[in-house]
Amino acid sequence: MSVHMLLGTKREMSQLFKEDGEVVPVTILEVGPCTVAQVKTEETDGYFGVQIGYGDIKLTRVKKPVKGHWKKVGAEPRRRIREVRLESASELKSGDVVKVADVFKDGDFIDVIGHTKGRGFQGGIKRHGFNSGPRGHGTKNARESGSTGANTTMARVLKGTRMAGHMGTNRITVRNLVVARVDAERNLLYVRGAVPGHNGGEIVVRKAKAKRAKKEDRALRKGKQQ
């Protein structure tokens, strides 16, 4: 059984043109190649899994334990390493290289995991969508958050109260994106839709866990219900 997840980088947003002239907005992702660092089995580890690595890194920035881990495999250390759980034993071996075309193909539904863009310190209006105050003459609370709690019974601010603070860099999973094209030579994945994060940001691409039905299937189901 092969892996169902690969590591990659968000490149940029672009567009594709179909044969009938339809414009398809896509996000270009550079996925793989990923090197297998370790294969785990039930006999040795109690479960099935595969460790994969992605990205180049200078050897001077790699710690000795990590160097030794990759030295056993006989491959160069990678910048990122992640473990993928499997339901059964994998045919992969330590040192194998997994490319994007080995896992994904045109028309697949995928989930993309990334971190949103950092926005720094923001107020309640931008961070939580609060309404602004009156902007009349003499008003001094145009963009203030307002009350944060009672001053008698509680006499404190409750945990979880929405306030101004750091915004962004949240881990987000965008589900059920459609693969518009796979460029096996350049390890590029053209995904229909938007992907979280900035250009050059690290992402995780996996096969969709809850794949949505195609338009034809949804129309057929709707007709049967009627």
SSE arrangement:
Blueprint: E1 5-17, E2 23-31, E3 34-40, E4 48-54, H1 64-73, E5 80-86, E6 97-98, E7 109-115, E8 120-122, H2 124-128, E9 165-167, E10 171-183, E11 188-192, E12 202-207, H3 215-225
Antiparallel strand pairs: 1-2, 1-12, 2-11, 3-4, 3-6, 4-5, 7-10, 7-12, 8-9, 10-11
Offer a concise description of the structure.
The protein has 226 residues and is mainly beta.
List its traits.
226 residues, mainly beta, Elongation Factor Tu (Ef-tu), domain 3, 2 domains, six-stranded antiparallel beta barrel, four-stranded antiparallel β-sheet, 3 helices, 12 strands, 36% strand, extended
Explain how this protein is built.
This protein has 226 residues and is mostly beta strands. The protein folds into two domains: 5-118 and 170-225, Beta Barrel (Elongation Factor Tu (Ef-tu), domain 3), CATH 2.40.30.10; 119-167, no CATH class. 12% of the residues lie in helices and 36% in strands. The chain is built from three helices and twelve strands; from the N terminus they run E-E-E-E-H-E-E-E-E-H-E-E-E-E-H. It has helices spanning 64-73, 124-128, 215-225; strands at 5-17, 23-31, 34-40, 48-54, 80-86, 97-98, 109-115, 120-122, 165-167, 171-183, 188-192, 202-207. The strands form three sheets. Strands 1-2-11-10-7-12 form a six-stranded antiparallel β-barrel. The chain is extended. The model has no long low-confidence stretch (mean pLDDT 87).
